[in-house]
Structures are given as C-alpha cells and as structure tokens.
Write a structure and sequence with these properties.
The protein has a domain of 34 residues. Helix content is 56%, strand content 0%. The chain contains three helices and no strands. The termini are far apart.
Length: 108
C-alpha cells in the first residue's frame, strides 16, 4: 500500500504541471453593469444582489400577486362549499321537521 501521509501534505507528484504563463489573467474583466462576486461566503449569505438579465421566468412581484390570487381562490372555494353544505343541511332539517309534524298529527 502507499504512504498516506504524503497525500495529506500534498507531496504526490502526478507528472502534471500547470503552466500559468499560458493562462489568461482575470484582472477586472467583468462586463459593465455586472455584479461583482462577494469576497467570502459570509458576505454572500447576508447580502442581496439583484441578477440582471438572468434566466428567471417571473419577477417577485408577479409571484406575489399569483400567491395572493391563489389564496383568494382557495378561500372563495371554501366559503362556497361551506355555503352549499349549509344550504343542504338546512333543506334536510326542514324535511325532518315536516316529517315530525306530520307524524305528530297522525299520532294524535
């Protein structure tokens, strides 16, 4: 087996050498109007930065309106179904009261 202590210290030589001279440098090559990247993960977690020309399909305002509309539709459906059930129960109670009145008249 190999010497694992070398792995943790990074002393393995795989024969791969990276020639940094041939790589393009990244010196402020960001296009104008773009958002710069935060320096640390904690900065990224606490800062909101809007994305311009992103791939989002809807804006936040549209999603908010859709959410409110969905809540109102659900609420109206619930009220309508409750009203329908109540009307059905009222009709059934009326039928039962009529049947009781009829049974009382026949028994007396």
């Amino acid at each position: 087996m190999g010497d694992w202590s070398r792995l943790s210290t990074g002393q393995w030589n795989l024969g791969l050498e990276l020639k940094t001279e041939s790589l393009p440098t990244m010196q402020n090559t960001a296009p104008s109007g773009s958002v710069t990247v935060a320096e640390s993960p904690s900065d990224r977690a606490s800062d909101f930065r809007a994305v311009r020309d992103g791939t989002e399909l809807h804006s936040g305002a549209v999603l908010l309106v859709e959410a409110y509309a969905a809540i109102w539709v659900i609420l109206f459906a619930f009220v309508w179904l409750t009203h329908r059930r109540q009307r059905s129960l009222d009709q059934r109670i009326t039928q039962l009261e009529q049947a009781l009145d009829k049974a009382r008249k026949e028994s007396s």
